[in-house]
Design a protein that fits this description.
two-stranded parallel ribbon; globular
């Protein structure tokens, strides 16, 4: 990253409490090999890792995911001595690479610190809560099992504990607790004002209640990720502001990509339109071929049936009549020809190409 960024770039990150994050990960990534055979997170923790195969795809989510995200070895330390050594190296690496480390549990306080570090305004940091589960898909761990999570994610817990402490030391050294709380209150008041201005119903709704499907958050695992509906009486300027506040992360990333790389997006859209035209032409060719075949074959079948149904012919050739009727029924029952196209490497039908193209767009 440093190779492509300016020398005065400000680097910051954010940490979440490993206990609540583990509960969230188990819900969101329930289908990964590490979790799929356990009904609850408690069952997984009681297994003690005996059935965990760290080499399987996506199983890195199951242990020390914060450490993994910072590019460090997330395997469990063999003993306390190794834990001390590796956690110290991890903390030192993060401190040397990041100017500020925020804390998810104190998100509003974190935004105030970030605002002062970057000379931003209140409007720059106001936001709505996104990628959040509904209450039904959340569970609470007892203090006993919370301690199990801390031991299971021992590297993450050391990392989080250190930066949670340094976060508050930074608050005390820069703003002070009273000034911080004053600005947090202003931020929350502005958020509440925007929620009343923007949101139909004033708050988040379950995904099946999101009216604009283009703003529906991605759903995965057992988690039920909520979204928002905008009020219908907004003017264009207000609508643009409100839409930005409720856009889920995947759609927002796509919009940012289009803004950063318009030439790439234009080329992709042109290729998409060219493919659509080729598919439409291929479908028209198929339809024409089918109609032509029916037009060519229908008179012959009609004449044959008419001829065989004539009184004289029926009396003379009753068995031949039945065989012709059977042949005609088989011909009419045959499915239409399946179109092959090089757009799908000659292995799929037109319908298959549509599906493949849709996956490409995702």
């Amino acid at each position: 990253v440093r190779k492509v960024m300016p020398v005065d770039t400000f680097y910051f990150s954010i940490l979440r409490n490993p206990v609540s994050m583990m509960e969230s990960i188990f819900s969101y990534y329930k289908s990964i090999p590490a979790f799929q055979n356990f009904r609850t997170l408690t069952d997984f923790l009681l297994d003690g890792g005996r059935s965990l195969n760290a080499s399987l795809p996506n199983n890195h989510y199951a242990r020390n995911i914060l450490t993994f995200d910072f590019g460090m070895d997330s395997s469990p330390p063999a003993n306390d001595s190794e834990l001390d050594k590796r956690s110290a190296a991890l903390i030192a690496a993060v401190e040397s690479n990041f100017h500020l480390v925020l804390i998810s549990e104190y998100f509003d306080e974190s935004m105030i610190l970030l605002k002062h570090a970057l000379c931003w305004t209140l409007e720059d940091i106001v936001s709505f809560r996104l990628n959040s589960r509904n209450e039904k898909s959340r569970s609470t761990l007892s203090p006993e099992f919370a301690e199990l999570v801390k031991r299971w994610n021992s590297l993450d817990w050391r990392l989080y504990s250190h930066f949670n402490a340094t976060f508050w030391r930074r608050v005390d050294a820069t703003l002070g607790r009273a000034k911080l709380q004053e600005e947090v209150d202003l931020l929350r008041a502005r958020r509440a004002e925007l929620q009343q201005l923007c949101l139909l119903g004033g708050g988040a709704v379950d995904p099946d209640k999101v009216q604009d499907k283009s703003l529906k958050p991605f759903q995965y695992g057992k988690a039920v990720i909520q979204g928002y509906n905008l009020r219908l009486d907004l003017d264009n300027k207000t609508y643009a502001l409100c839409q930005r506040l409720i856009t889920p992360e995947l759609q927002y990333t796509k919009a940012l990509f289009a803004k950063q790389f318009p030439d790439v997006v234009a080329k992709f859209q042109a290729a998409k339109m060219a493919n659509a035209k080729r598919l439409a032409a291929a479908r028209r060719t198929t339809t024409t071929t089918r109609h032509s075949a029916l037009k060519h074959n229908s008179p012959t079948r009609t004449i044959s049936v008419h001829s065989m149904n004539s009184p004289s012919h029926t009396k003379a050739h009753p068995q031949k009549l039945d065989s012709v009727r059977y042949a005609n029924m088989r011909t009419l029952a045959k499915p239409g020809p399946t179109l092959k196209t090089s757009l799908c490497t000659g292995r799929h039908s037109v319908a298959g190409c549509d599906q493949e193209e849709a996956l490409l767009l995702l």
